[in-house]
Each structure stands twice: as C-alpha cells, then as structure tokens.
Amino acid sequence: MSDPFSRLGGSTARRLSRLGALARFGFGALRSLGTLPAAGRAVALRVTLNQIRFTATDAIGLVVLLSGILSFLVISQAVRELGQLGATDFIGTLIVVAIVRELGPLITALTVAGRSGTAIAAELATNRVLGEVRALEAMGIDPRQYLVLPRFFGSLVSVFVLLVVFDIVAVSAGFAAARFNGMVAGRYVEIVLQALALKDVWLTVAKAVTFGVIVGIVPAYYGLAVRGAPTEIPIATSRATVTSIVGIFLCSALFVVIG
C-alpha cells in the first residue's frame, strides 16, 4: 500500500503541473497577439464580436433574472428583519458588500462558465478532432490567434459587461424591494451611497478581469488538449467546466482574504 503522504504529494504535484501548463498556455496565447498579421485581425475581430454576442448579449436576460430575484429576496428579508431591530443602515452594506461585491461577480462568472465555457471547450475539442487545428498548423497559421485569442477577449469583455448589468439590476431590484416593504426611497439611496467605497469598485473590476481570464483560458486549454478521439470531447468539456468553477471559487476566496 502506498504512503498516503506520497499520494497526496503526487496529486499536488500533478495539480501544480497542470496549473503551470494553463499559465504557459495563457501567456503563449497573449504573446501570439504580437505576431497576428494585419490581414488576420479582421477575422479575429469578427470571431471576437461573435463570441461577445453569444456570451454577453444572449445571456443578459438570464443575468437580469438572477440578479433581480436574488436582490429582491435578500433586501426584502433584510428590510423586515433589520427594521425590527432598528438597524436598517446595514442594508447599504448588505447590498454593496454581499451582493454587488461578492455574489455579483461570483454568480456572473458561474453563469458564463456554465453557459459559454462549456461551448468553448466543446467547440475547440471538435475542431481538434475534425483536424481543423492540424490544418491551420499545416498552413503555418498559429491556431491560438484565431481560436483562443477571440474567445479569451470575448469572455473577458462579456464577464465585465454582464457584471455591470448584474450590479445595476441588483441595486434597482433592491430599491424596489425596499419601497415594497415601506422604506423611503431617499433613505435607501442614502445608505447605499454611504456604504459604497472606491475599494468596492476596484475589487469588483479586479474580480471581473480575473474571472474573465479563467473562463476564457481554461475551456480553450482543455478543448485543444484533446488528442483526436471523439469520446474525449465530453470529457474535455466536463473537465473544463469543473476546473473553471473551482478556479472561480478559489479566486473569490482569495479576494476575500486579501480584501
């Protein structure tokens, strides 16, 4: 029987090796941007815009629904419970810290990872299996320039845009919930503005960028890691989704520690 510590060390080493491979893949994709020919920029831009349309525009309705329901329920309960204690000032902290700064980036990133990250992994894995990636390489074209970079920048922009939408809807739904439960409109605006700080804005932006990088790189890495068997496509998609979700939660916890 092998030593448990040896198994733990081997598992840790494999995970660190995979993390290093992900980092090298991401930096390699970004470096390939410098060698993208002028003739190919229009193609890459068109793919990027299509990615943004699929990832952001088509997901706005879902994000609005999730944000509105979550904020309305939380603020409704908060107004009732905190109102009985005479502590309605904490509603501003609740909407800014708990919803806008913490749950907003987390739910938005999970939505994009579950909806678009799986699509990216499956699409690139299919391209690999069908030989399209090999064909690009045979023509001297770097696949990262046309397959990875557009999806990376598309995911980055989409997560940021959807997070802005989420926060706007959350604050608006919180306002509706507060008014529905008898709070004066001016009072709600006052306590939210008092709770909002520049630190909250920068943390939210940093989370949007970090989660966008994860959603853009991880699925592309696993999709292109497929060797050629069609049966590997669902496996790669599953691994990409699970890894993206775990990475999002770990980074969210790290932001809590350093924030």
Q: Your description of this structure?
A:
It is a single chain. The protein is mainly alpha-helical. It has one domain. Helix content is 86%, strand content 0%. The chain is built from nine helices and no strands. The longest helix is centred in the middle third of the chain and has 40 residues, at 90-129. The protein is elongated and about 70 Å long. The model has no long low-confidence stretch (mean pLDDT 85).
Percent of residues in β-strands: under 5%
Rg computed from alpha carbons, rounded to a whole number of angstroms: 22 Å
**Amount of helix:** over 70%
* Shape estimate: elongated
Compute the number of structural domains. 1
Low-confidence stretches: none
The total strand number stands at 0
Secondary-structure element string: HHHHHHHHH
Oligomeric nature of the chains:
single chain
Largest sheet: none
Straight-line distance between termini? 43 Å
Structural class: mainly alpha
Number of helices: 9
Q: What value does the average pLDDT take? A: 85
